[in-house]
Structure formats: C-alpha cells, structure tokens
Amino acid sequence: MVLEQSRLGKWVVFCYKPHDMTEKQEQQIDVHALQDQLANAEERALRAAADLQNYKRREDEAKAMWSYMAISGFVTPLLGRISELQKGIEHDPESALAQVVQAFLADVTKGGLKPIVPVAGEKINPNMHEVLMQADSGEPGTVAQLLEAGWQFGERVLAPAKVSAVPE
C-alpha cells in the first residue's frame, strides 16, 4: 500500500495486489465487501423503519393527550352543572326540563364522556371513587352508597364518583 498525493492535491491510497493473488481471490474479496455494504444498508433501513414507527406512535400519543386536554378543559367545569341538573330532575322526572337534560346527557355520552356510577357492594377503586363518608354496614372495602356520579372520558377519569364506603 502506497500513500501518494494526486495532481488535485488530495491524498490517495493505492493498493497493489500481491503477485500471487488470483483473479478469483480478487472477486471473492469484492463479494465480501459488497456483502458487508449490503448488511450495513439493510441495518440502516431497519433502523430507519423502526425510528419512523416510533415517531408515528409518539405522534399518536401526543394527539390523544392534546385531544384529552382540550376536551377535559372544556368539559370539566360543566360536570358540576350536569350533576346539579341531574339532582334537580330527580324530583320531577317527567318535566320538560328532565327530558332536555336526558337528551343532553345522551349527546354527551355519544361524544365519549361516560358516567361513573358504582353500585352498592362494588369494591372501592381509588382511581374512580372518592370516599367522602364512612358507612357502618356492608362488606369492608366496598361502596355503601353513591353520593354523586363521576365522569370519565375514554379511559381517563375526569371526576371520580363521590361515595360513602365501609372501612376495611
């Protein structure tokens, strides 16, 4: 191997083959070099595909988070009013206001907002239930009475259900 400077001022490496190397041996060396280049190109392509897949997944997660934040920012202040309307129509479920409230709740649930309504005897889930009072009768660690329904959007809890529970 000889290092020489070309006419353009760049350094060039010249490889001289030994006199005893055959043309077949040269071709094998070329094939191995090409196989290495192919393996490197395949690895770069796989990494690029994996990077693209990870990017798409992160973007989907970000879209879902921003969507949740936008909806929860708009809906969360309304949840208290919805609960008040539900309590107000309990006294006269046949009134025109009750029918409007029921239609409104049906539209809200179509949009992905779901009420959390635990029943008596259901095991307390701290992610979905907020215990406000203790009850004396019932199985320990369970809901005794629903005080106010909670709300969730998709799998995320916007407001936990307010319950009384039997202490463990």
CATH class: Mainly Beta
Low-confidence stretches: none
Task: Name the shape in a single word.
Answer: elongated
Strand order of the largest sheet: 3-6-7
User: Which strand-content bin applies to the residues?
Assistant: 15-25%
Largest sheet: 3 strands, antiparallel
The CATH level-2 architecture is identified as Roll
Distance between the termini: 83 Å
CATH superfamily: Head domain of nucleotide exchange factor GrpE
Instruction: Give me the CATH fold name.
Output: Nucleotide Exchange Factor Grpe, Chain A, domain 2
Q: Give the mean pLDDT.
A: 82
Count of helical segments?
Answer: 2
**What is the count of distinct domains?**
1
Following the backbone from N to C, one meets helices and strands in this order, namely EEHHEEEEEE
Structural class by secondary-structure content:
alpha+beta
E-strand count:
8
Topology:
Layout: E1 2-5, E2 11-14, H1 23-90, H2 96-110, E3 113-116, E4 129-134, E5 143-148, E6 150-153, E7 156-159, E8 161-165
Parallel strand pairs: 4-8
Antiparallel strand pairs: 1-2, 3-6, 5-8, 6-7
Helix pairs in contact: 1-2
For the structure shown, list the relevant keywords:
Nucleotide Exchange Factor Grpe, Chain A, domain 2; 49% helix; 2 helices; 168 residues; single chain; 22% strand
